[in-house]
């Protein structure tokens, strides 16, 4: 653990994927931390910039030759590696490999080259579990990814754990569930329907849920995820096990319960035009089973807990989703 992480200084932090909805919210949250000296935010582009002089925005492709080496020429106390090509984009095998696998390996190697054992927080995914799922998933369940995205994430989890064992980084790989709610109309994620259902309910518009009413999916509010990411920076390396990858404690939300809670919040008329129209391909990916996260919970990571808390946390973070009377 670095001197700064031991509380003897102020941290220099790198956030990759900082232009995304998770990355930008994380930068916002870091600026409210008393021990943050500076944040380097890197992405392909930014929909907004920060006026805080502690933030430096860098537009670049991490898979560009020399980009990572220039970015991490000087060490960081903490690196949040959120940059990824997920969902629809990861179907491009070469793009997915360059961004999700090769760039991560180069970033780990460059951190090693600086000689500082930086805290390295890696955004993995529950996508490491492929269909068909077992009856339940625990920390001991063997991941068997069925697409390149999940494969690349799993390989990088093992690398983060191995580089930590060797003393090159102080890493944690956290398996994100569906993080809700992205901006309206997002088409980058296959799980976009879990976001769209909120906007449809707020507008009182028709909506076809592509799962059965009894199907559940793993979700976490953006608010809850950011709290977990802030915790990941502060965990004492001495308390961490050799294995450095965990399921985050996602909430398994049944579609019927989600629709019912949205109706309670927005009024029953808001969801009157909702229907369940199960799609076999979507059910194969998103009709999920109970997920246990005992290892992460022992470290202090948390989930939203239940559908009511999940919906409340989502709406609290997105002004466009707040009820008209709020």
Describe the protein:
- The N and C termini lie far apart (44 Å).
- The protein has 11 helices and 12 strands.
- It has 326 residues and is an alpha/beta fold.
- The protein folds into 2 domains: 4-177 and 220-247, Rossmann fold, CATH 3.40.50; 179-219 and 250-290 and 305-317, UDP-galactose 4-epimerase, domain 1.
- A 7-stranded parallel β-sheet has the order 3-2-1-4-5-6-10, with helices on both faces.
Sequence-ordered SSE layout with sheet pairings:
Layout: H1 4-8, E1 11-16, H2 21-30, E2 36-43, E3 55-59, H3 67-71, E4 78-81, H4 93-114, E5 119-125, H5 148-165, E6 170-176, E7 178-180, H6 193-203, E8 207-209, E9 216-221, H7 222-234, E10 245-247, E11 251-254, H8 255-266, E12 274-276, H9 280-286, H10 294-299, H11 307-317
Parallel strand pairs: 1-2, 1-4, 2-3, 4-5, 5-6, 6-10, 7-9, 8-12
Antiparallel strand pairs: 9-11
